[in-house]
């Protein structure tokens, strides 16, 4: 039987909704949708797509690392954008964080994200050795 490892962070959403920031089963690490949430639950960098996307990607990669993966292990990302988000800035942040890895990616606009002032949400999948 393959063991399962879970990672949670301090965003507060996980406990409220009953999920983990990331889960690893075997070599597969799946990271839940991640926003730029501050300690008080409010959005960091309100109105700043680039700033929020950078924070989201930093947290996603931190979750991958917490479960034994590296940025090179990331094989897929999904970037959700609120209607007021700038896709070019989100793309810039993705390129900065993962451009050398070049994972499969989907970026799309959605009607909105849960919580006020959130412009970007990122989820990922990684396949790590060991």
From TrEMBL:
Residues annotated as signal peptide: none
Domain of life: Bacteria
A Pfam family per the record: Ribonuc_L-PSP
Gene3D superfamilies with a match to the protein in the record: RutC-like (3.30.1330.40)
UniProt protein name: RidA family protein
Lineage: Bacteria, Bacillati, Actinomycetota, Actinomycetes, Streptosporangiales
